[in-house]
Amino acid sequence: MVKIHDNDVNYNISIAEKLMTKLTRSLDNPNAKWVINKIKNANNVILEITPTYYSTWRSAVPTT
Description:
Number of domains: 1
Distance between the termini: 40 Å
C-alpha cells in the first residue's frame, strides 16, 4: 500500500526534516537543504509505504 502525500506541504516538510536529520545528522547538510527546498517548492512529495507482509531473520545468531 502506498499513500501519496502531495497536498499538505507543511506535513511533507516536517517528515522530510525528520528523515534528513536521521540520515545526514544535520539540516545544514547540503543534501538535506536541497531536499527540503524541493519540498517547500512543491517539486517533491512524500510516499508512505505500508507493507502487507513484513518478515525478518537474524543472521548473527551462532549455530551450535
